[in-house]
């Protein structure tokens, strides 16, 4: 039995999970994950019913994947 070498960051990124701690989702990823429209997502944020985005750069925001997943799980358990 041979020991597997740890994955490099580039390999992990190609596999879709660049970090073991989680990742940021962009708006298109959030739309695909939740099935909600962009307008609905921002409306829910305004009401305080959806996780707020995190400013990543001057012109981009993202949502922490775990926050979106937790929100989805809460919605599913309430249904």
From TrEMBL:
Q: Which SUPFAM superfamilies match?
A: Putative DNA-binding domain
Question: Matching InterPro entries, A to Z?
Answer: AlpA (IPR010260), DNA-bd_dom_put_sf (IPR009061), Prophage_regulatory_activator (IPR052931)
Query: Out of the domains of life, which is the source?
Result: Bacteria
**Species name:** Sphingomonas endophytica
**UniProt-recorded name of the protein:** Prophage regulatory protein
Q: What is the lineage of its organism?
A: Bacteria, Pseudomonadati, Pseudomonadota, Alphaproteobacteria, Sphingomonadales
């Amino acid at each position: 039995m041979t020991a597997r070498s740890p994955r490099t960051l580039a390999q992990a990124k190609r596999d879709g999970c660049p970090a073991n701690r989680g990742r940021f989702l962009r708006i298109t990823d959030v739309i695909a994950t939740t099935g909600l429209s962009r307008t609905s997502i921002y409306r829910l944020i305004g009401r305080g019913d959806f996780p707020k985005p995190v400013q990543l750069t001057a012109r981009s925001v993202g949502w922490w994947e775990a926050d979106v997943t937790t929100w989805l799980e809460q919605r599913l358990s309430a249904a």
